[in-house]
Amino acid sequence: MDAYRDAIASCCRQLRLSANLVDNAMSQSGESHQEYLYNLLSEEIRYRKATRVAKLVNTAGFPIQHNFAAFRPDEVQFPSGVTVDSLKALDFYRSGNNLVMYGGTGTGKTMLSICIGMQACQKGIAVKFFRTAALINQLSEAQENGNLSSLHKKLSRADILILDEVTQSLSHDNREVIYELIKKFKELGRAILLISHDLEETLRISDSITVLRDGRAVGTVETSDVTDDDVKRMMVGREMSGDYYRVDEEEIYEDEVVFSFDHVSTGTGLKDVSFEVHKGEILAFCGLSDSGIHDVGQAAYGLVKPTSGKVLLNAENLEIEDAMFSLKHRIAYVPKDRDEEALMMATTIQNNFCVPSLEEISKKFGYVSAKEMREMADKAKKEYQVKCTSVNQNMNGLSGGNKQKVNLGRWLLKDLQLLIVDCPTRGVDIGVKAYIYHVMQEAKKKGLTMLLITDELTEAMGMADNIIVMKDGMVKKEIGRSSHFSEEKMIEEMI
Question: Which of 449, 453, 456 is nearest to 468 (CA)?
Answer without folding.
Answer: 453
